[in-house]
Amino acid sequence: MTDTTFLHLDAPATPMNMGAVLIFEGGPLLDDAGRLRMDLVRRAAASVVPGRPRNRQRPMPVPFGLGRPVWVDDPDFDLDDHMDAVTLAEPTREALFSMVAEWITTPFERTRPLWSYRFVDGLPDGQVAVVARVHHAHRDGGSALASFEAMFSLTPDVPEFPTPEPWTPAPLPSRSALMGGALSHQGRHAAKVARIAGRAVRSPRRAAVRGRRMLAAVGPFVGKTRPVPRLSFNRPAGARRRLATAVLPLDDCKAVRAAFGCTVNDVLVAAVAGGVRRLLVARGECSPAVGVTVMCPVSNRAAGDASAGNQSTALTVTVQVAEPDPVARLRQVHAETSRAKDDDQAADMAFLVELSDFVVPVMLRGAVRKVHGQQGYNLSVSNLAGPPVPLWLLGARLREIYPFAPLIGPTGVSVTALSHSGSLFVGFNACAEALPDLDVLTAGVVAELAELVARAGADGPA
After folding, report:
1. What is the Cα–Cα distance from 452 to 300, expressed in whole angstroms?
2. 302 or 333, which is more confident?
């Protein structure tokens, strides 16, 4: 169901594409002329990428909108359609991220699987970048990360490439089969809803409590539970993007966590909220007394689960950015996230998403766009657990990895962090018109963490 939601949210200026930029020491990946050894890279990708079935599948609509799109084998799948190589015109990081900002927002053709890799040489110091573009319907962040890791090794030794297994695509389903499957799916969900209704009749008090909890869970996402201020960067996104990056020492985040009895995710959200405060001050705007509302995706994916699709829900956190004390804001974040977990907000949201599968599919697109077009939160902050140990691609050491989440609704900016080998790599994806001063927000997040670290040493436990 969540996969379908991301397909429905696609718009020309805001495709639901995730991105990631992985920067490697280039030596083993370059030939004597300093150009990428694309033949070697392709052999490595061919040995692992097609082995994941979803990588060879595309969404196929059901006639007349009678059901959700289904994933079918692409009979014309060709790995070369999903990989290319470019050389930067200028050997700068600015040129790299400018290219990435344009490329990851290019909509996918739905007649092919919804992912692409781009290999980039011409970076400073002979580095090489691997840029991934993946539609959110294809995979969530955790699954996309796991699919990346299949290409990596834990040592600099170049592995032997296994010969790809032969593959024959399954026949495409007929129109009648698609419609029959959709009707059968709706029938099963109708039976499920009937069972839920029966339980509600037998236990009306319990049903009323669950209903109130679900309304409380969904309320923040449509701005009904509490007022969500329209900040100056909250506007419908245009087609142009601006990307920025930051690297936060993971040990610093853990030190703050230990000093104030919170989580690393709380520290990240508090640092971002502090960065928003600094941005508003720099713009000469009054910090809203009602606070900034942050949407935080919550993964339901079990450890080691690399299956395709989406397994996540979300919760919201409101922080009073008028509060000048960064520790007080951190404690607000921790109290909010603890409350949401105690209320089981994410589980109630997951149940509500499951029930929405019963909505007549032809009506679902409009409902999804209406809900996500409302001002339910000011920005999103995601935190992904990445590989904690060093990784190599064909003998080249991975040095940096920055994730980027899409923009949904009038948020203006998304912030995504990924931990790897002692660092928290943070990617900022912003509407260029809404945040021409994205560097102020980025620097503000770094400065906020530094303040929290200083306070942890002064105020935290000995």
Report:
1. 29
2. 333
Q: Which of 68-72, 220-224, 319-323, 406-410 is least confident?
A: 220-224
Q: Does one domain contain both 127 and 233? A: no
Distance (Å, rounded) from C-alpha 138 to C-alpha 7?
A: 9
Q: Maximum distance among all alpha carbons in the chain?
A: 75
Distance CA 453, CA 71 (A): 47
Summarize pLDDT for 395-445 with one digit per residue, the tens: 999 999 999 999 988 899 999 999 999 999 999 999 999 999 999 999 999
Q: What is the CATH number of the domain that holds 306?
A: 3.30.559.30
249 has which bridge partners? 423
Number of domains in the chain: 2
Q: Taking residues 352-372, report their average pLDDT.
A: 49
Confidence category of residue 370, pLDDT binned at 50, 70, 90? very low
Residue 199 lies in a domain: no
DSSP string covering 149-214: HTT-BSSSSPPPPPPPPP--PPPPPPHHHHHHHHHHHHHHHHHHHHHHHHHHHH-HHHHHHHHHHH
Q: What is the Cα–Cα distance from 460 to 323, expressed in whole angstroms?
A: 20
Q: Taking the CB of residue 394, how many other CB atoms lie within 10 A of it?
A: 21
Structural domain for 32, as ranges: 2-149
Out of 109-118, 340-349, 360-369, 371-380, pick the least confident.
Answer: 360-369
What is the mean predicted confidence (pLDDT) over 83-106? 95
Q: Is 358 left (phi over 0), alpha (psi -120 to 50) or beta?
A: alpha
Helix (H, G, I), strand (E, B) or coil at 124: helix
Taking Cα atoms as reference points, which of 249, 247, 248, 321 lies closest to residue 278?
A: 321
The number of C-alpha atoms within 13 Å of 396 and in the hemisphere containing its C-beta is 25
Alpha-carbon distance of 434 to 235, in angstroms, equals 7
In a domain, 345, yes or no: yes
Helices 204-218 and 175-202, packing angle to 10 deg? 120
Are residues 336 and 292 in contact, defined by beta-carbon separation less than 8 angstroms?
Answer: no
Give me the helices (H) in 308-414, please.
326-342, 345-356, 361-373
Identify the domain boundary among 149, 183, 198: 149
Q: Are residues 316 and 430 in the same domain?
A: yes
This prediction has a pTM of 0.86
Could you read off the pLDDT of 246-259 as tens digits, one per residue?
999 999 999 999 99
Q: How far is it, in rounded angstroms, from Cα 341 to Cα 346?
A: 7
Residue 183 is assigned to a structural domain of this protein: no
Domain end marker among 149, 178, 193: 149
Q: Answer yes or no: is 411 within a domain.
A: yes
